[in-house]
Amino acid sequence: MTRLDEAALTGLSDDVVRPGYDRTAAKTGVVHLGIGAFHRAHQAVVFDDALKSGDLRWGVLGASLRSPGVRDQLNPQDGLYTLVVRDGEREDLRVIGACRSVMVGPEDPAALVAAMADADVHIVTLTVTEKGYRLDPASGELLVEDPDVAADIADIERPRTAPGFIVAALRARRAAGLGPFTVISCDNLPHNGRRIRAGVLAMARAVDSSLAEWIAAEGAFPQTMIDRIVPATTAEDVVRLTARLGVEDQGMVKAEPFTQWVIEDRFAGERPDFAALGVQLTDAVEPWEDAKLRLLNGAHSAVAYLGALSGHEHVHEAVAVPAFRAYVEALWDEAQTTLNPPPGLDVAAYRAELMARFSNSALMHRTRQIAMDGSQKLPQRLLAGAAERLAADQGIEAMALGVAAWMRWQEGVTEQGETVVVDDPLASRTAELIEASETDEAQVRALLGLSAVFPASLAEEPRFVEAATAAFLALREHGAVEAARRVTE
Prior knowledge:
The protein has 489 residues and is an alpha/beta fold. It has helices at 37-41, 43-52, 69-74, 109-116, 147-154, 162-175, 192-207, 209-218, 235-245, 286-309, 315-319, 322-336, 347-358, 367-370, 374-391, 397-409, 427-436, 440-448, 456-459, 462-478, 480-487, and strands at 16-17, 28-33, 59-64, 81-87, 90-96, 99-104, 123-126, 182-185, 224-227, 253-255, 260-264, 280-282. 46% of the residues lie in helices and 12% in strands.
């Protein structure tokens, strides 16, 4: 089967939206580290919109810091791929042309550094997950004993990590008399701009203190909030799209219609007209960030664990269960009290929109996909809100059930007895703790002792321990559906 590429564009049906601009005239103004499905369905679409508007500065060079998979998907297709937007029975197709090519960092680190140091590059975006920042979860300090971090410090010209590539490229730009690019984290993390700035400055100080001073004075690391549900692409998705396009697209991504990008208005140099492209520029990202993390992401994680435990493969199937739907509303009731909503956000309308998004059956968003890396997601999605509720002497029954469902998921067995892979950086450690626990109560206490997940102030709070233990026992005795129902009684 012929692959999607430039030559194939003219043969696509009229209902497929094409780039519509001269891709050969576009410059590479953006380098994205960690190119995956989310970037291709979110930020790359914004840069594609900029190119379609006639501002040809914003072509994207993608870079993988690990596997060559996306390079092998996109480079044979001239960087082209299809964004499939699904909403119920409706399906809209758009070929995105912003990505010019993809590099694999480990194959030629110096080439990627040189590309980032090019004068046309004004923005470096990244989606590398929290692990990619190489920061200690408790202290926020750079993990200098991490082998890859240590290697970067010893030889910054051949970096391995995201902070290392950024430092190496900024070092090359300063040597060439160029200003720094703006670094925009697009990872779903609180204070993401501060985190990547901390990692970059710590590594720069270890390499050259004057470089660190220059980056601190001249660079920009704006906070951001990003939002779009982007389920993993399946082999069936590719086959289905091939039948519709008449050519094979191995780089396709699928997403819901909703998309949002909020960026702190802080840049080191040139930028697209973000506001005209639908991006919200603000002086304060945190209120937007908190609303998303505690309402959308908190509920997504909780219902993913509860749904997966009870045998529901997809989110829309889980929220169709009355007990789970009512539980999500109860969780939002708790989380809403911890928010300071930004101007323009109608929380009631936002909640209604979220439930509609969760119920979108066309997305086929797998609960097990959302359940991945839970140890890194719980602190900002559920634990921070729980701590604030307890400080205000308020109950946390719904939040505690979400935490307990994560604890139950760590056992790697569903309520139907199916063995599942626990995809989490702490999976081996949680397995050890569970194996050594003789009772359910001991298992809860042991997992609460994970300092990388639970701050001591919360893990040692009797009300939190009691709530988490009660929720875990309810899951064990009654199952996920009944435990959720009891929360809303």
